[in-house]
Design a protein that fits this description.
Helix content: over 70%
Radius of gyration: 32 Å
Shape: elongated
Order of helices and strands: HHHHHHHHHHHHHHHHHHH
Strand content: under 5%
CATH architecture of one domain: Alpha Horseshoe
Number of strands: 0
CATH class of one domain: Mainly Alpha
Structural class: mainly alpha
CATH topology of one domain: Serine Threonine Protein Phosphatase 5, Tetratricopeptide repeat
Number of helices: 19
Amino acid sequence: MAKNTSGKTKNNTQGDSRRLSARVRVAAILLAAIVVASVALYIAFSPDKTVAPDSGPRPLTPAELAISQARNLMAIGETKVALEGLKQFVKNNPGDTVVRPTLARIYLHINQPDKATEQMDIMLKAVPNHPKALWIKGLIAFAGGGDGMKFFRRAAEQETAGAMIWGNFGMMMTDKKDTATARPYLIKAVEAGTSDARIYVALGQIAFEENRFDEAYTYLKEATVKNPEYARGWALLGEVQKNLGESEAAMASLRKAAKYASGVERAGVLVQLGQLLKTRKDWAGAAKAFARAVDYPAMRQSAALEAAKCYYFAQKYALAMKNIDVAAKMNAPTDEIRAWKLKIEDARFGPEKTAGAPAGSLLDTLPGLDPKKPKESPKK
């Protein structure tokens, strides 16, 4: 007799829905309990203006606690629970302008831009030209393929925008090569106390491109203090130090950049280091730097050619041959690659052998055989 499983399937589906709803309700209840507790805590320990600034951190406000809880939930993949908690918070606090930006970002993260826009419109109605709301509207427009820049600019123009918005807008303008617009906003971010190393690197890059090397050095040195593992900061600092005639310091900075960089950025740093070592006629060191860059396809041909040249000058002809062969096999070899290939072959095998047989052929390993002469038949 066949079993009737339709009822069981229906019950399982309903059970799953109930469990999910229960999980959301439990998270919302926990969040509400934390918020209520934090209200009492905040009232009991509200900041006293007469208290010394080193008396310890202030307790989180209910809005800050709600955001912190949502971020923790997002970090463990509980996006739906985080969303429900923030929705409940703004429902209970219709005039909120602190939690709504995070709520809008979550909506944007789960591809619901209309709901994100709705939250920002509520904020802008309550506080016209609210910088965070304008910035997020720019993100929404940008994500949808629209013109986000007009919102970003309006956000940055607000006196209450803050270091994050000023700094990010300045970096956008730097990327667009509009340094005249970028620099004042980057400086405002620094004056507002930003700890973002990228801001200092952007200012250092602008100063470097305008040949103000001392100023560039100051910003880039600070960038490496703010983030000692930021490869781009070390790489640009090395370039500035090279222009200041500090080659030893430049090499140290470039080596740190190579340590922290990855992918094509690391290849570029290794090429920088190789070029610097070439100027010092450290052929073996330069060759090793270029050879390490050969591992990255974007730089392979040019790095292999430079490695081959340096190995040649270091009189390491086998390694020079290995790298020139790599360069020759990439796309169509240039006249320069062909010329260096012959030069290296001549140095390794001698002009006579190079002219008669391909370098590395079996004839090179047989003493007493001239590749130009046919092999004689044994005498009877």
